[in-house]
Amino acid sequence: MNPTSSIKKFEPFTFKSISEFEDKIKKLELTIPISYETEILKTAVKLEDIYIPNRLSINPMEGFDSDKDGTPGKLTYRRYIRYAKGGVGLIWFEACAITENSRSNKHQLMITEENLKHFKELVIKIREICNQTLKELGFSNECVLILQLNHSGRYSKSGGKRFPIRVYNNSDLDAALNVNRQDGIIISDIELKELEDIWVKKAILVKEAGFDGVDIKACHGYLISELLSARIREDSEYGGKNLENRTKFFLNIIKKLKNKVKNDSNFFITSRLGIYDGIPYPNGFGVKAQKNQTFPASVDLTEPIELAKQLYQLGVRLINISAGNPHYTPHITRPYNTSVKDGHLPAEHPLYGVSRIMNLTSVVKQHIPKDMIVVGSCYSFLRQYAGYVAAGLIQGRNVDICGFGRMAFANPNFPRQIFQQGKIEKKKTCVTCSKCSELMKLGKATGCVLRDSQYI
Ligand SMILES: Cc1cc2nc3c(=O)[nH]c(=O)nc-3n(C[C@H](O)[C@H](O)[C@H](O)COP(=O)(O)O)c2cc1C
Asked: Which of 179, 184, 371, 428 is the most exposed place for a label (fewest CB within 10 A)?
């Protein structure tokens, strides 16, 4: 069968053995490296003056379980304690809103001066447990904790109701979400300028809370991510054809923040970058500048690579790479076996989805300086074989750290299993059933409905 047609066919995960899995990768002519030398995942990674203890991390996963004022709730603690006991060297905390009206859910975390002390308590607790676990597993370096800060942009809610704060009339996304031109607002340049300073203030709170770093979120179609593709935002210093305008808001935040924290070399400024969303030009990012393309548009990483280089020049030494828009192209962000209710199965093999983001991540990594550490995403679809693929990727220097999302909901002990037994236990893996995303869509607290008694 010709590979281009077979990658366009959805197939669920049915592999009974690693050889069946490898055969499928070969048949589809995909580049998904496999190595049984999982010991490599125990090696530390140098990040400026410190070492991240190992090559496995938790990627940000919103739980929607904070108190109404954004304070981490009981279930938030529960989730992070489970991660901290698993053995990862890096925990990338979920999207935390910078303001009330940029929350996507009334139980999304939000950091404020009033609740700062609660974030401090959370950091102390998680750091203590994570370090104890790392010591027990034989790692000599201490954990790294990053918090992601976000403005939900067109996915914001106000008073519990949808209030899309849009950057421009993105016809692709507006149509998909039934957004009319009169819904919400198109954010003005003045409001964006004010937001830059609010964002910086909130990032300083993240530092005061005791996190090792802050992620200025630039992926998944939220505010900064939408700015990156704002070519048709006219008469604006934050939009237009040139990349300089479209990255201005994002880079201004980084520059201002860097200025404020310049004396503290131990606080990392980082970003989760969406490098390709598949949305045809002119409304997409990381796509070919060619009109009349259909979805998914051809890749062109020129701008994402340029942006990563600019981040490096500003002193950023850690990035986390993602892709897609989970509200529009969920199979690009998180390849799945089953879709959310009323969702659809994509016209592509999920292994192709996994290989797409792996390869794009690797291309970015090859174009940036070696001391810029890259965290990759999207390994949960691989289930019990994910550890072997992670080892293959690290061995090939395609990525520095493998970050797991849904697998951590289902089986927070996956790192311990890889470190101690060489593989993830088959009966405990995430099966990418999309139920965690469905809970999220319903606005409920989320977790694994198959493996975690709290959500079953
Ligand atoms: C329920 C849910 C919540 C998520 N929350 C976030 C988030 O807060 N920030 C973020 O950058 N990505 C978020 N993601 C995306 C994940 O971090 C990850 O990129 C994606 O699930 C693919 O990785 P995986 O295959 O390991 O699950 C979320 C995904 C899911 C399913």
From this structure: 371
